[in-house]
Structures are given as C-alpha cells and as structure tokens.
Amino acid sequence: MWDFLFQGFAVAVSPLNIALVMGGALLGTLFGALPGIGPINGIAILMPLAYTLGLPPESALILLAGIYCGSEYGGRMSSILLNVPGDAGAVMTTLDGYPLAQKGLAGPALGMSAIASFVGSTLAIIGLTLFAPLLAMVAVKFGPAEFFALMIFAFASMSAMMGKDPLKTLIGAILGIIIATVGVDSGTGVLRFTFDMPELYDGIDFVVLIIGMFAISEILLMLEHSFDKSSDKGMAPIGRVMVSMKEVMSCKWSMLRSGVIGFVIGVLPGTGASVASAVAYTTEKRIVDKEDTFGTGDMRGLAAPEAANNAAAAGSFVPMLTLGIPGSGTTAILLGALMLYNIQPGPMMFSEQPVIVGGLIASLYLGNLVLLALNLPLAGVFARVLTVPKWILVPCIAVLAFVGVFQLHSDLHAIYLMLIIGVFGYLLRKFGFSLAPIVLGFVLGGLMEQNLRRALAISGGESGILWESALSIGLWIAAIIVMVAPWLLGRFKSKAVAAK
Amino acid sequence: MSTFSFASLRRPLLAVALAGAASVSYAQGGKPECLAPAKPGGGYDLTCRLASNGLEQASLLETPMLVNYMPGGIGAVAFNHVNGVRKGDPDLIVAASTGAALNLALGKFGRQYDASNVRWVGALGVDYGAVVVAADAPWQNLDELMKELQSNPTSVVIGAGGTVGSQDWMKAALMAKSGGVDPRSLRYVSFEGGGESLAALLGGHIQVFTGDLAELKPQLDSGTIRVLAALSDERMDGAYAEIPTAKEQGYDVQWPIWRGYYMGPEVSDADYQAWVERLQELDGKPEFAEMREARGLFPMSKFGSDFDTYVKDQVEEFRGLAKEVGLVK
C-alpha cells in the first residue's frame, strides 16, 4: 500500500518539481504575507499560468500545493509584526504574536511560528497519508446538526478568552454574529440588512472585514498617537533573533495537540483554517494557561493557532482527494485545476492515479521542509521590518490592502465598506474591545446559523435532531465541560483552601 | 512635525492606491476583458476562462484577454456596473448563465432592469441539471421517487447548493410540479455550493440532491451515487449515456445551465458583431471542443440575435414559472 508514496517521491524529487515546489512555497509565502491576497487568489492567478506553460498535471498540482502551504506560513508574518492578519487563518496569531514582537521578540516569534507551522503540517500530512480514505467516510457523517454542535463547542471554548472583561468579549462576539447576518438569507433567499444595495447581497466579505478591522483601525490609532507625543510608543526593539530550544520544548505539547485539532477540523468539509486556529487557541488556553499569560505574548498561544491552521490546510486535501469534494475554497480551485487535466478525484484516485496522489503528498512533505528551511534563518531578516518606522510601513500595507481588496471586487464599494469598518474598529478599540472575538463571532456565527437552519429544515422544525447522533451528543457534553469545569475547579480549590 | 508627515503622506498614498487600483481593472485601449461576476473558482470564473483560454489558443485575439472578478448578488453587482459605468465598453464581455436569466426574471438585479438592458453575445457551452440519490437509496428511477413525493412530500429531504428561489431550488420545484406535487411543500435544505451538498448526500443527511451533471463525474465513476434523471432534452453521450432523461420517464422537466456572455447596452453594432463572430469562429474549432469537454460542458451554439431571443424568451418563461411555483405573486 506504500507504493503510491514511493512512486510519489520519485516524481517529486525530479529537478523540475523540486524547483516548482520551492518557487511555489516562496510565492505562497508572499501571497500569504500580503493582506488581501490569500491562497485562493494566489492559486486562481497562477493556475492559468501553470496550464499555459504546459506543465504536466502532477507538476502543476505540486506548484499549486506549494503555494497553498506557503501562504499558510506567510499569513502569520504581518500578524506578528504589524497586528494585521495576512489571511483568514492568521487572525488568532495576532493575539500573542504581536505582543511578543512588541516585547522585542519578533525574531523568536517568527521562528517559533515557523516551527509550529511545520509540526502542524507534518502531523496533518502523516494523517493524510495514513488515514485519508477512512477519515473521509467519517467526515461526511458530519451533518448540519453536528456542525451546529461543533460551533456551540467553539463558542463555549471562547469563554476561555473572556479574561479581563467578560462583558466586552461577549458584546464583541455578538457584534460579530450580527455582522454575519448581512446578506441573502441562505435558507429562504430573503435579503437581510442589505438596504437595496446589491453590493451587500453576498454579505460582508471576510477580507474586507479583517483589513478594515485590523489594518485601517491600526492606522487611525497611529494617527492619534502622532498627535500626542507623550504616548509615542516608538518602535519595538529588536532583541535576539533565534528562537531558543527551551522555548520550542515548552510548546511541544501545544503544537502536537493543536496539530491534531487543526487536522480534524480541516478534514470536515465547510470549515477551515480560521475555525481550526480558533478552536486550537481556546483549547490550549484552557489546558496550559495557568498563569493567565495568553494574550500577553505567550509562545504557546502563538504556536497553537499556527500549528492548527497549517494542519487544517493539509487536512482539507482529504475530502478533495478521496471523495472529490472540496473541503475549502482553496481546494475547490485545486479541484478545478485537476479537472482541467481531465483527472477526476474520487475514491478510486489513490489506486488509479498513484503518481498524482503520491506526487502531491510527497511534495507536501518536501514543501514543508523547504518552508522551514526558508523561514527559520529568514526570521531575523523579516523581523528587521520592524525597524522601518510604522508611519511608513502601515500606510504601505494599507495601499497593498486597498489594491488587494479592489482586485477582489473590481468595485469601490468594497473599499468604502472597508473604511467604514475601519472607523468602527477604531472606535471599538478605543472603548477597550478586543477585535478577535468580533472576527470569531463573525466566522463561527455565520456557520452556526446556517447549520442550525439546515438541521431544522431537514427535521422539519424538530429541535431533537440537534442532539440525535453520538457525535453531536459528544460535542454538547464537551461544550458543557469547558463552560462548567473551570468554575467547578475554582470552587473545589477554594473549598480545599478553606479546609486548610 | 508628526502631523505634518501624515498630512503630506496621505494624498500621495491615496493617489498611489487609486492609480494602482485603476490599472488593475479599468484597463482601456483595446485590451479585451472578461468580467466574472463572482469570486475566483466558481462557474463564472470557468465561463471567463473558457473564452480567454479558448481565444488565446485559437489566436483570435491580438492581446491576451484579462479575467477580472466582481462578486456580489450572483451577478447583480456586475450587471449594475455594466449599466452604470461601462455602458459602451467595446472590449468588455461579462460571463452569464441560466442563473442570470432567473435573477432577471425574479427582479433580483434591480426592479428597473430586464434582459433588454444588456446585449447578449452568445453561449459557448451548456451543462444540465440532474436528480441524484446515493447508491443505496430505495428509488431506482425518477418515477419511484415521484410516487413517494406524491404520497408524502415531506418524507424526502432534498438539498442543493442554492437558496429557495435559486436555480438549484427551481430544479427541485419544477420536478415536483411535473408530478403534481406542490413545490412549497418540499423539505428543501440549501448548502454552500455543490460540493457541500454532495457531502451531505454521501453522509445520508439529505436523500436527494438536485445538482449539475458535470460536477458528478467522479462520484458517477466510483459508483457512490445514482443519477435518477438528467434534466436535458435528450440523453447525453459518453459517461452519461446510461442516464435517462426526466422527459423519457414521463416528467417533462428540463434545466439547461448555459454558459454565455453579455456586453454593455451602448456597445456599437459593429463592436457587438465583432464579438459575435469571434465567439462563433472559436466555437467551430475542434481544439475548442476538446477544451470545452475537459471543463465538463456540452456543446451549445447560440450567437448574436439567435442568443438574444433565446435569453429574452427564457426570462419570460422563468417569470411564468416563478408565479406557478409560488416564488412571486
């Protein structure tokens, strides 16, 4: 049964394919690092090129897979350095990545996140190699009711983030859910909160939301500081460059757990890197954050979402390769690329197209090695970005963001919307709200509503469907445990103290 | 000092941003462009790529055709854009499909617009709707499924990739109507696209999926699904030859999903005609037939006034159907 992998490595180590995987990894890192251009656009731009160049199918797929993995690595850079997520999966990375950079640990943070990305991807690729066909059959058992329970679990885990100001976290998450309701109602086709503007029919675009929320509000904050000299924070210092072995070891369990969580969530069709990194982060906070240092620059809080989003990217290949069902927007495009070459992914692909499946999996292994080798030594170089004054850097990022968003929409309304959201985000930050719960509420809330509606449409309105299957019951129990356990533990502890 | 640095920076930066943005999309001066009214990767993207790759391969254009994206309202944003900003652009074609005709009929592109607000150039390919069940489903043919629906419409869960009122829902609604079942009594679930719907079918969460033929090939080859009926006029050939049409099973439902293009309302007759001829010539090339097949599309040759009449008739027909199935009053 290992034949396909050996054949695959034989294909992947040809000079052309090695060059392609390296080139793809580099380009992908760039696409991921630039806000507004994510893996979907990167692949959509390059796919016709691969076809026009006349690359054989396995080489084209290897190039595109390199871009995909690379962009998951690249997304973290602007999160850590600028507090602006490069793509959807990198939102959680800002929570501890940016505080680390502000402490002068940008180099180690970039290094640590590269290692976490590598560990997460590698775990997921091993999972893909060993269990793909089996997992795919389990993944389709995940229906609307199970997804709804998963979202409840994710929201329950978010209570771990409530930290200093529970009320503001709650309001933030609810705001996110409210923003997610704009657009065509998926169940009935009725327009909600669109004010007769066709630009709002599809709802608020995720890229527009995060660029507005993070990048534009960051510029506004900077502007304000530039008026007030006394609060001028100045540049973050550049401390040491390399991540230490001790730091890596302190994160090993966080990386392994998050890698597994990310892979499992990535395998489910319809959820992706953003949900995976959110669940991984909040789970880790529950498990390891005893001193309440998550959110203030804890390496483990950085390693968890990075391992998870990379693992999810690799996980989304499972339903694509084994069932011919794309698990994410990016794999949908990869599926289109395969169809261009008259290759139909499906249950028989592993036996009928061993060269392509094997070559793809082998190049995922190689691509990750390349990305680690590329990213570790370069961490110091990228960290130098911080020596560029922010008043130059952030407007540059904003220009890229404007062009990126415009390229996505060919329409100025998206730009206006981004600016409005930016001002809104700025006000929220002034009032002491954290942005992550809003973005999470947006992502999870949208999925939660859709799946609740679907589940109830299937059952004809019977709410019993929501806790019918063993899978959903398990998730409900897990949700209750994460909500109640800390409180119970707290009471238990205080009783023990009182007894003494 | 610091205020000054901002004020002096803001204007140039904004200018750079806008200039960069402008060069991305409003490329003028004989650069042919296809606008896909959706995000990259979907059916409209495919429609644009079909034209741009085909025309390039056949050397029918001097400069390569640019593909740009304008997502929003399943084409509503682009339709408004062409009617507002680029009414007479001789180099712009916009991807459209049966879904655009349906939205026009339902007034979803804006009440003030109908099919005569743009110039319909032609269609290069077509796909057909399909009624799909899992391989282990109790129904062997469309008739058995319809009997079940007639006796108890809510006993079967139907799912597909669009909301109520979308193409996918229309397929289910018309199928129900052809068997005398009230479309409004169906138990219908909408997913995000065909991929999620297929996953739900394979996982047993829905029993019937009203999809499109071309996207079903991998599952068809592997035997995990059964296609009860193709919603085409006649049987397709090749891998689909075994699939009976709904019509031959006694249920007269057809749902072609054509893939075509329109231009702005004020494009000159000469420019319009040039595009009609260009697409017509492309359609005749054997290499293009191969490319179309690789993208899972069947031939459909309708161009110029022929296509224009076809779309306008279809919009009228959909208006009537929408009333019959209770979508509009």
TrEMBL record, chain A:
<dbReference type="Pfam" id="PF01970">
    <property type="entry name" value="TctA"/>
</dbReference>
<feature type="transmembrane region" description="Helical">
    <location>
        <begin position="415"/>
        <end position="445"/>
    </location>
</feature>
<keyword id="KW-1133">Transmembrane helix</keyword>
<feature type="transmembrane region" description="Helical">
    <location>
        <begin position="113"/>
        <end position="139"/>
    </location>
</feature>
<feature type="domain" description="DUF112">
    <location>
        <begin position="19"/>
        <end position="440"/>
    </location>
</feature>
<feature type="transmembrane region" description="Helical">
    <location>
        <begin position="43"/>
        <end position="68"/>
    </location>
</feature>
<keyword id="KW-0472">Membrane</keyword>
<keyword id="KW-0812">Transmembrane</keyword>
<protein>
    <submittedName>
        <fullName>Putative tricarboxylic transport membrane protein</fullName>
    </submittedName>
</protein>
<feature type="transmembrane region" description="Helical">
    <location>
        <begin position="323"/>
        <end position="343"/>
    </location>
</feature>
<feature type="transmembrane region" description="Helical">
    <location>
        <begin position="465"/>
        <end position="490"/>
    </location>
</feature>
<feature type="transmembrane region" description="Helical">
    <location>
        <begin position="259"/>
        <end position="281"/>
    </location>
</feature>
<feature type="transmembrane region" description="Helical">
    <location>
        <begin position="388"/>
        <end position="408"/>
    </location>
</feature>
<dbReference type="InterPro" id="IPR002823">
    <property type="entry name" value="DUF112_TM"/>
</dbReference>
<feature type="transmembrane region" description="Helical">
    <location>
        <begin position="355"/>
        <end position="376"/>
    </location>
</feature>
<feature type="transmembrane region" description="Helical">
    <location>
        <begin position="6"/>
        <end position="31"/>
    </location>
</feature>
<feature type="transmembrane region" description="Helical">
    <location>
        <begin position="170"/>
        <end position="191"/>
    </location>
</feature>
<feature type="transmembrane region" description="Helical">
    <location>
        <begin position="145"/>
        <end position="163"/>
    </location>
</feature>
<feature type="transmembrane region" description="Helical">
    <location>
        <begin position="203"/>
        <end position="223"/>
    </location>
</feature>
Automatic annotation (TrEMBL), chain B:
<feature type="signal peptide">
    <location>
        <begin position="1"/>
        <end position="27"/>
    </location>
</feature>
<keyword id="KW-0732">Signal</keyword>
<dbReference type="InterPro" id="IPR042100">
    <property type="entry name" value="Bug_dom1"/>
</dbReference>
<dbReference type="Pfam" id="PF03401">
    <property type="entry name" value="TctC"/>
</dbReference>
<dbReference type="InterPro" id="IPR006311">
    <property type="entry name" value="TAT_signal"/>
</dbReference>
<dbReference type="InterPro" id="IPR005064">
    <property type="entry name" value="BUG"/>
</dbReference>
<protein>
    <submittedName>
        <fullName>Putative tricarboxylic transport membrane protein</fullName>
    </submittedName>
</protein>
<comment type="similarity">
    <text>Belongs to the UPF0065 (bug) family.</text>
</comment>
